[in-house]
Amino acid sequence: MQLKSSWRLLQRVRGRLRRAAAEAEARAGLAPFVKKEQGRVALRLSGAPVAPAESLDLFDDDKVSRAAGLSKAEILWSPIAPQDVVDHGSAARFCIDTWRKREDLRERFPAGLSGGREGVSGWFREVGPVELGLSDAAIVHVLDALKSGVGDRARQAYLANVALVSVLPQGLTPAGMHDLFRWFMQSGRRQSDLRLEEIWWLFLQAQHDPRRELMLAYSFAPAWQQQHRDGLTVFGREAFAAWFCAEYGAAGSWTHPSSWPDWHGAVDQIRIGYWARSAWRSRHPDALCDKVAARALLAWLTSAEAELPEAAQTWCSNLDADVVSTELVKVGLNVIGHFCYPSGLRVSVESMVEGLEAVGVSTSLRDVRTDAKDDPHHVEFRGAECHDMTVIHVQPEPFFDQAYRRADLFEREPRPYRIAYWYWEFDSIPESWVAHANQVDEVWAATEFVARGLRERLSIPVRTLFPGVKLAPFERRSRTYFGLSDGPFTFLFTFHMVSVMERKNPLGLIESFKKAFRPEDAVRLVLKTSFGERFPAQMAELREAAAGANITVIDQVYSPDEVLSLMDACDAYVSLHRSEGLGLTMAEAMLMGKPVIATNFSGNVDFMNEGNSLLVPYELVKLGKPIPPYGADLEWADPSADEAARLMRRLYENQEWARELGARAKASAEANLSLPAAGARIAARLEEIRALRRPAP
């Protein structure tokens, strides 16, 4: 025990030293850009003009080398010959080489590495074998690279670096590309563990469409959003563009608002303008909840009294007033949540959004970053806070207080009606949650088990609103894809190490499995987890407990598609959890037609019963010691290891009956857990809230 404690202490010390070294390196790499930014701010404060931004020529090796401040060998690779295209990386480098040296290709397919990949893909298919000398296998790699988002991780690394974005918010526009490219090549590449082709691909994409990059920069710069609250709408873009050009020394056709595409639809532009301008709200207080008032707003916007720029006034005159006013008064919801963090929280928030959209409720979505290892799609969730109600689908700790910052979103004023969507695994909540609840107007919970604990401590409304469950499309894969053999009857349990291993109780499941089966039985238990490297001691304990039995431990981050494929490839699902706020994986297994064994306690009993699953009896026990974030005095279930073993044995010995139970589970889940039904319940509550908030006549 003493050796284990010493080992853990040594691991923590090493971890702190690595973090401290990484932070020092990051500060040093950013220092020259901070100094330059301080000089720019001083110039602006003095009233002096900012010098034109330095340009970046991505098609001249000498110039790009000088921009990076490094030799060509450090920022470029040796030319990729056609026969060297053997994988994704070499294919991406070949595409970049071809793109940089073929001006004719760039003229023919101007969006080649950006949005218009279909045209250039067809060109590679057509001329690849003859003109370029690519083999059939190489062409497959090239086409895969063109559609895979090679630059996405580099963009994610940029957006996740709060200090960097605060210094270079314009970094991917022509007004900042020179400096950002230098940062990536000198320090960012190493800090973010990026490949050269990922950085090059990002900058070639950005160089192609500077208008889009300016709009993206605004979308993820809260300070800009605060200063120009409708800066990407027809009402405020001229003022925003003039400010940007003066602030950063920008020039060129890409800065002219008349050339910008519509970033938001007409209805959302009006909503954004409405919340940005108090005069509109004072003059038309019911415009977003009453169709007659909405039409009056639209008519007013076309008049001289509204004092809009001529282009905006003309734009309003060309709208279909009946269609736009109808859409303006529909209930809508801003949703801030983990759309890119692989977890049950992501599945929950995605289900909520899909359910709402199924019943005609429009949503505006923002992703809350956890770190740069999230799926690299943060940039796709750039909705404005344009509706009058916002759900913050983020746990109270550790990110609730930071939700807007991590969503790169300005907290809109006037403040919308805020709703927290929280999960918890006990019938009482931590004291700190009460303070978090002061930031919202009401709280929603997925199950009555969670809601009861919230109601005991909170004075604001608490509603039980199940998010709905649906199986996302997934590819059916054989067991061999996951390193499993085809023969044995296979039980599965999936869990996230970050979700507290003691609560998920895989050690109790291992104990029950060992009681139920002998090593010679044709049966296997698969424990699928992720982020085990963050919890080395617990992973070692898990692997040690599994040793000597037909138990496979998988510690990998799978895509949602792969997680469902693994569940599909197994025969039954088992969760001997001590407590669950919802029990999403159990619901998914039921929808898939798998027989499910689970502890008869907490959130899962909202949809599991003795007719559609096998429920394991339990005793309530105190934790007895703090297990962060849970306190020692909380109680959770201690499921019966013997009864769980008996139920697993029963499924194994009567596999036809197991399949019948799975069919009953599927029918029950499809009837009770649908997304449209959940969406309708949430929409009804939104209508109630809006009615309560409507200005008195």
TrEMBL record:
GO molecular function: glycosyltransferase activity
EC number: 2.4.-.-
Principal EC category: transferase
This protein's UniProt keywords: Glycosyltransferase, Transferase
PANTHER family recorded: PUTATIVE-RELATED
Record's protein name: Glycosyltransferase family 4 protein
Source organism of the structure: Variovorax ureilyticus
